[in-house]
Amino acid sequence: MTLKALSLILATTAVTALTLPALAQDKSGMNVGAAAEGAAPGAASTMGLAQELYALGVAQGDAVTVLAAAKLAASVEVKSAEAAALDPAKVTFGEGADATTFRAKKAAPAAPAAPAPMMNDGTPRAVSKATFFNAANEDEGAADAPVTADAMFAKAKELAADDEALLGLIDDAMAETGRGRIGGAVEWLSRLPSGQTDVWEIPYYGNSYAEVAIVGDGDANLDVAVTDENGNVICYDVSWSDKLYCDWTPAWDGYFYVTVQNMGGSRNSYYLMTN
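and the corresponding structure tokens:
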């Protein structure tokens, strides 16, 4: 499977609203603003690339490529978290609500509106998730989670076999683990059965760089759509992969909805990662 950089879907003729000090910010359009100063792909992007390189290295039996993947994965400091429960009544889809119409549907809050994305003290509310539709089968797949950096290093050693020079490089890389790590990423694990759809509600600050990565375990294809609170599509991909990446800059503090649908024949245990 290939890592897909989800293209930002923006109308090139987007209308820029006049902003006057006495008027509230117009939040009726697409919640995407100008790129944040100094914005660059972060930990979520790095981890997605690590998973891509690992899959390539294993497919080719190349210990060097697997080692490169392991070093990338080890360079990322990620905090694991548990998602809150998202009220299904807050979510509505576009026309249709099954696997055959995923390409036309968008996740967005329905009435009543979701609470303000930021708490009174300015901190974001928790990420939340709801799962929809019945599982197509009970096949749990071969993996239980995406591959960790430690597992990548172990695989690199396995592929290196009796190559002492290469084994030495792997040992050196393992000894360097933890130095100069990229921080700021949070991950949530979801084990999504075939035929089911997750909808995640994620708050982001306005005028700040935002990124989302979906890193699957390789057992099934995942289709992904990212929408804002008004149902506008920010990123969208339905090609054959379970490793996806999307980045943008919100124009205002708001909720975004990540729809992940398992289009394969078995469960996919994936990480949703954000900054």
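(Above: one complete record from the training split.) The CA atoms of residues 34 and 244 lie 22 Å apart.
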